[in-house]
Amino acid sequence: MCFLSSTIFLDNCETLRKRELNYGKLTRAKENTGEPPVLRRQERLLVVTGFLVPLRVTRSGSVFSLILLTFRNIHNVKLSFANAYRYLDDKEKDCMRYVLENDTLRVEIDSFGAELKSVKRKSDDKEYMWYADKKYWGRTSPVLFPFVGNCRNKEYRYGGKTYAIGQHGFARDMEHTMESRTEDTIWFSLHSNEETMEKYPFAFVLKIGYNLTGNELKVMWKVENPDTKTLYFSIGAHPAFLCPFNGEENKLGYGLQFAGLKEVHHHGNTPDTGLAVMSEDIVIPLEDEKVYFTPGFFDRCTYMVEGKQTGEVSLVTPDGKPYVTMDFDAPLFAIWSPEGKDAPFVCIEPWYGRCDADDFEGTLEERAYENAVEPEQAFEASYSIRYL
Fold this sequence. Notes:
Elements: H1 6-33, E1 41-48, E2 51-57, H2 63-72, E3 84-88, E4 94-101, E5 105-110, E6 115-121, E7 126-127, E8 143-144, E9 155-158, E10 161-164, E11 177-181, E12 185-191, H3 194-199, E13 205-213, E14 216-224, E15 231-233, E16 235-237, E17 240-242, E18 255-258, E19 263-269, E20 276-285, E21 290-292, E22 303-306, E23 312-316, E24 322-328, E25 332-336, E26 345-352, E27 371-373, E28 378-387
Antiparallel strand pairs: 1-2, 1-3, 3-4, 4-5, 5-6, 6-7, 8-16, 9-10, 11-12, 12-13, 13-14, 14-28, 15-27, 16-26, 17-26, 18-21, 18-23, 19-20, 22-25, 23-24, 24-28, 25-26
């Protein structure tokens, strides 16, 4: 049983009323300026003797008017940490947003998809991550599992059967469980179930972790095989970074830096099916390890860079200075921004697996870069993002 004194309640009411008025002003201001929308519903947190009581709020609701309802139903109150809050997404799905922060960065991760949603520089409240405007692309940093990219004809063959599967698998569209949390690290997990087994006949445990140290965020993956047969899968990252970063009209003049390279070799993909065109070997010449965006740079769909050509890729401003650097040890990576949209973001994507080639006719086990984990064993990988 949890008891809250009327004195504490009254002392906090006026503060809460002021905060709610400010929240309303902020909401209206963002709607009028066209900035990224605030969450349509949030849970506000009432500080009481060191605990936080979440209060469900809608745009038409009031924190003040809902306090009495919360106290009347005190047996339903959930105690929360200061670094988490609950919200309803645009499909009315109940989700949890978790926060890691230090003196340099504030990071937000969603329980839905265990997806990184925001990274802000504390010195000036500058956001680095794309805010998932569906006009261009409605995601920020999905984890791609158990497939990366498309299968040919959106199906694959395993054990003499054919299974239908969508692009990038299903983990990004499922609720993940927060397993553990410390001041600088958080882990989520996703377990196979009857629904996943229908389209992907493997038992698995997918664990996704985030560790914040200084200006660096480390993203960790662990895929466990609890079954008695070999587990086949692909896994990849898809983080989208704001570009332009300093308020310019578009990303022309920004660019990419590929550490240690004089040129980059890449394959393209088919715009209608998203399959790899392996017959193409396209070369991008670099100047001082860099290439800058020109009109039409992203009209070729995805740049797929294979062969571990580099393990460090940065986004750079027009003066050549990196503002985001990714470090990874993946066998390949991709660069993507929606073709023909002049979208204000760029994705740098370390992959352990990729889409099928446009002429692929093999089985799941024969897919390029497919990972295999034996029973009771695990696969582990990670990458890091430095926010400069």
